[in-house]
Amino acid sequence: MNGNRLDQLLEIALATGAVPPDASESERIALAALLGVADTVRSGAGVVETEADATIPSARARFERYLAAQQSAIRAPVRAAPRPRRAFASYLGVFGRLVTFRAFAAMAAMAIIALFASQALTSDVGTASAQVLTAGDYVQLEGTVTSQTTDNGLSRLHLASDAGEFEIDVSGDSSVVSGQLPGDVSAVQLGDHILVGGVVNQGGRVGARTVVVAPQGDAPSQGKSSPHPAAKLRMAVRPLEGSIVSFSLSADLKTARVVLDDGKGGLFLARINRKAAEALLLNSMNALGARVRLVAGGSPGLFGLVVSGDQSPSPTAASAGAGGTTPSGDPGPAKATATRNAGNATQTPAPSATPGATTSARAATAFVEVKGIVVARDANVLRIQTDRGQVLVALRSDTRILLGNSGATREGLVSGTFNVVGYTVSVAGGFDAKSDRISADLAVLGPGPGQ
Amino acid sequence: VNGAVRLPEDEADDPVAASPTVAEQLAIRAVARDPEAWSAIFEAHYRSVFAFVRYRLRGSDEAEDLAAQVFEVAYSRAAHFDYRGIPIEGWLIGIARNLVRDHLRKIGRRGYEEELLDSTAPTTVDNAVGVDLHQDLQLAMKSLTADQQTVLSLRFILDKSVADTAKLMNRSEDAVKNLQRRALAAMQRSLNATPYRSDRSV
After folding, report:
1. Does residue B200 sit at the A interface (CB-CB below 8 Å)?
2. Are the C-beta atoms of residues A157 and A168 closer than 8 Å to each other?
3. How far apart are alpha carbons A127 and A146 in whole angstroms?
4. Does A398 contact chain B (CB < 8 Å)?
5. pLDDT tens, A163-207?
6. How close does chain A come to B96, measured CA to CA in Å?
7. pLDDT digits (tens, 9 = 90+) for A394-431
8. How many CB atoms within 10 Å of residue A34?
9. Cα–Cα distance between A224 and A240 in angstroms, integer?
10. pTM recorded for the entire structure
């Protein structure tokens, strides 16, 4: 058996998953054994990936602290950089046997102090963000604006939420919905209660795609506990029940993460699988506030979830019922003009700027939500038939689209070879006042004709 | 109707992988110790670094600790990074290899197997994952040479192509193919009491 030939055959076998037909009997035996070993090694990759995902929040927080310390050291050279938490632990491990009991006791006391110090560090903004956010994630957050700076048309908000504290960038490209009408960045004020949908940038801040400002006097957080310190945020280790206080969808759309408030002062970060994320969003595109129960998700560290009862934060457009301004079957597209619907009864869903689309109304702090059937598509614009009329929804280059069980592929959607007409779709986003359309942050494709 | 929707390609979301120019610009900022550049590097490469070191270490906590150290060491040596000769990932993997080697030397006083057997349970109570790799796989990996470990990690854990692996290991593609076959054979010998007979005839 020639080594070089076996190398080449193995490479072909690894690429195709099958032993090449021209291999001799002895080569086939050898290759089959090597493929089996390769599969064994590969089988660990999924576990490693799960572990990496689970460890990334604390590793990121550690690295952020390291970077911050280095920057501080540059500004103030006399300050020593803080020693990483784990470095101290490993120090104990390596030299533990060499120290006397008294020295060990002193070191233990130092370790306790270091632990408290590190826990105190985890309550700062950077760490809170780091625990919940990953660059590229689409996220939904809700909270109160506690500080605001403006620079060159970019408004940077500090958001205090039940999931922690976050930095939000609101730009001219962000869709701002205020009083259920299209607004602009100036509509966001200190002390406002806002809902944010956006994408996490490399700096760990959220680039807002949509900001929904609760009207003055509306208190969507009434009755809720005060924001929890981020240090209480823990990884969920077993099924539990709670209300979603933050939702994030990974850039590859394969997993999502939720932070759950268990109502007993506990905050739990859980990674959920794609199917669970789709089911959650099909229940309501406004994931925040939904009460859910974590269930086993098919692999370690990954959960599924069940929405507990119908406590979705917003009714769907299709089920919104009264309050529509356009009768079903309206032949023309609804306009995203700011028409306050004064005729709405007090208990009906909040008026929206576009018939057929609704901010619900748990009310005023919900994303614009559309559910219906795609009746036409023109480039990146979908015309969606809802129970209350037709709505134009623009898919942006950064719209996250979950394909569900539609059978669609991303490539098919991009190229237009997949005919999306006739498929149900759920969309969350804001208003694009310039184009009279709904601007989609997030979309979930549902069943198609005959499915 | 039904025209093409211009949606982003996956690469567009990853500025690190978007183009050589972007990667080079990031490297230049990294050399200048721009914190945002380093955050981006961390986000882009942490998983790879973690995966690379994971099989050589006792548990997830240890791998996290060492992976985090890789970025700290890289930052501290940023001024020495020659971004024209090597991709950032290759540089990080190189640092990871050295740190793992040093780490294993240190714990070698006690014995790797003994340490490994002590680490079957997750060490962090709040760790949701609670997964531990099969000890036999880890022990088998330990039986390999450093280069064999590296090639298996790159090819089958990080799913790198032969060409990328060759670049990261600074070897020819043929050398990588040969190394991977020998590594798999060595793994099989460790995992299975039955020796890999055909390997001896090569």
Report:
1. no
2. yes
3. 18
4. yes
5. 878 889 988 788 888 776 777 777 888 888 899 999 888 777 898
6. 15
7. 887 778 889 888 888 777 776 778 888 899 999 998 88
8. 26
9. 19
10. 0.48
Distance from the Cα of B174 to chain A's closest Cα (Å) equals 8
Contact criterion met (CB < 8 Å) for A270 and B128: yes
Nearest to B69 by CA among B85, B79, B57, B80: B57
Interface residue A7 vs chain B (CB under 8 A): yes
| Prediction ipTM score | 0.72
Position B45 scores a pLDDT of: 92
The minimum CA-CA distance between A26 and chain B, rounded to whole Å, is 8
Three-state DSSP class for residue A350 = coil
Taking CA–CA distances from A202, the nearest residue in chain B reads: B40
Number of other residues whose CB lies within 10 A of the CB of residue B80: 9
Closest chain B residue to A401, measured at CA:
B7
pLDDT in tens, B101-147: 888 777 665 554 444 444 333 333 223 222 334 556 777 887 888 88
Determine contact: A115 vs chain B, CB below 8 A. Answer: no
Beta bridge pairs of residue A155: A150, A170
Q: Would you list the DSSP string of A116-166?
A: HHHHHHTTSHHHHHHHH--TT-EEEEEEEEEEEEEETTEEEEEEEETTEEE
Mutant choice from A11, A14, A27, A37 vs B, greatest count of B C-beta within 10 A:
A37
- The answer, for B105 touching chain A at a CB cutoff of 8 Å, is no
